[in-house]
Amino acid sequence: YEALSYVWGGDRTVPIYCNDREILATPNLVSALSSLRQKMPKYPRFCRTLWVDAICIDQDNLVERGHQVQLVKDIYWHARRVLIWLG
């Protein structure tokens, strides 16, 4: 998997859809995901696994969020590649 590191930015969010589920994302995350998608090869079988904290951690579940935050260092450490988005 690859992990995405980015600046969350302000409190403003916009809805995005992941696996038919609405997720509120910051405009900076939307920009990062859009850029990554545009740079993906146009092969129908190409697939990448991307770990993004705002998507992979249930932000509304305080228990899960507290537990997962402790694992973030290991998640980045074990990623095949860490992508950094500066905006």
From TrEMBL:
InterPro entries: HET, HetReg/Transcr_Mod
Pfam families xref list: HET
Domain Heterokaryon incompatibility: 1-87
Organism of this sequence: Glonium stellatum
The protein, known as: Heterokaryon incompatibility domain-containing protein
Lineage top rank: taxon: Eukaryota
